[in-house]
């Protein structure tokens, strides 16, 4: 039996959240901590889908800044998310959590293709589903992927896990010691004040579909469970 208010969640993990302090690549101890935290939540009976980013390996914008064609650079970023997704699947399964990776860019030897109804079926069977490959389209982000998949699978909330930041602030707390953390915001606040919660495409999609978002730090073990159990440890962003 679940002791939480959420039946189905999307966990958004940026690539950076998997790289730990090294800032690049995958840090096994970090990915194992994430997997253990996901396990705790799955054991509460919550259906967990994960959208994984790729910025720890490659970002399309960075490639374009180096003179590459933007769409090609973006496809490289989408492939990076698949590598991260496989690493997370491997870790989750080592903790005994049945996990399926679905990718929006087909590569059948590696992962299932993204099929919405099949993803929902996996979730109903209490398998963790990892959505890899972003939306499958250049010029988008994995934040937008999280918003899109949340709408498609009717998730109750998006949990946006951050590395070393515990919510949304009015200024960068690492630079400005007087920065103030918000407990609650609307998507309009995020858009109007240009807060770096997620990109504007993702924010708009969440706002239009009334999908709440909780920004929190994944650095402390057990935080995903705390959020799912309704503890106010981050910032909640709502539609209205
Ligand atoms: N990307 C894309 N379309 C998508 C999702 C991602 O083109 O639907 C590319 C884009 O180049 C992006 C990269 O994949 O920079 C990695 O994703 P993102 O930057 O969202 O990862 P994160 O910041 O969460 O690590």
Can you tell me about this structure?
By secondary structure, the protein is α/β, with parallel strands linked by helices. The protein is globular. 39% of the residues lie in helices and 19% in strands. It has helices spanning 15-19, 28-42, 60-65, 70-94, 116-124, 142-153, 187-192, 200-208, 223-228, and strands at 8-13, 47-52, 99-103, 112-113, 128-132, 157-162, 168-169, 181-182, 184-186, 213-217, 235-238. It has a nine-stranded mixed β-sheet with strand order 4-3-5-2-1-6-10-11-9, sandwiched between helices. The protein has a two-stranded antiparallel sheet with strand order 7-8. Helix 2 (28-42) crosses helix 4 (70-94) and helix 6 runs parallel beside helix 8. The chain has nine helices and eleven strands. The structure holds uridine-5'-diphosphate (UDP). Uridine-5'-diphosphate (UDP) is lined by residues 14-16, 53-55, 59-61, 74, 77-78, 80-81, 134-135, 137-138, 140-143, 145.
